[in-house]
């Protein structure tokens, strides 16, 4: 079973969402997703100031196995990116819910949060994939 922090929200496409306050949310990929992808070799992040719509592919995680699109679960403006990943993409593998975060977004539609999965529902989707 994957590590699934109960305080986070998730998407069916394995992104996680953590509230930071003032309408800003941190986005990353789940422990399950990084394990499936394997060792990260490069992460292509959006630019600060980019405006994205929920469901847009806005980043790419490249591993030794494959390149995978990362989708933004929320609509808004990118306000920060994890620049540490430029030199250390493996942080996504070693600490997917901490130092391996991808970007932060200031959301423009709070109702989108209702469409995210809680930790238990996300675990249910993983169980169905097996």
UniProtKB/TrEMBL annotation:
Chain ranges of the Lipoyl-binding domain: 24-106
Cofactor(s) the record lists: (R)-lipoate
Pfam families to which the protein is assigned, alphabetical: GCV_H
Keywords, comma-separated and alphabetical: Lipoyl
Residues with the N6-lipoyllysine modification: 65
Family annotation (InterPro entries): 2-oxoA_DH_lipoyl-BS, Biotin_lipoyl, GCV_H, GCV_H/Fam206, GCV_H_sub, Single_hybrid_motif
Cofactor note: Binds 1 lipoyl cofactor covalently.
Described purpose of this protein according to its UniProt entry: The glycine cleavage system catalyzes the degradation of glycine. The H protein shuttles the methylamine group of glycine from the P protein to the T protein.
Stated family: Belongs to the GcvH family.
Subunit and interaction comment: The glycine cleavage system is composed of four proteins: P, T, L and H.
Designated name of the protein: Glycine cleavage system H protein
């Amino acid at each position: 079973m994957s590590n699934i922090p109960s305080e986070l929200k998730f998407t069916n496409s394995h992104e996680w969402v953590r509230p930071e306050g003032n309408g800003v949310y941190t986005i990353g990929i789940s422990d399950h997703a990084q394990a499936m992808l394997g060792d990260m070799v490069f992460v292509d992040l959006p630019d600060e100031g980019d405006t994205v719509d929920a469901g847009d592919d806005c980043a790419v995680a490249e591993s030794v196995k494959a390149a995978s699109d990362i989708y933004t679960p929320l609509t808004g403006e990118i306000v920060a990116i994890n620049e540490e990943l430029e030199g250390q993409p493996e942080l996504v593998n070693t600490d997917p819910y901490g130092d391996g975060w991808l970007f932060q977004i200031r959301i423009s539609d709070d109702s989108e949060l209702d469409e995210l999965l809680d930790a238990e529902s996300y675990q249910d989707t993983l169980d169905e994939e097996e």
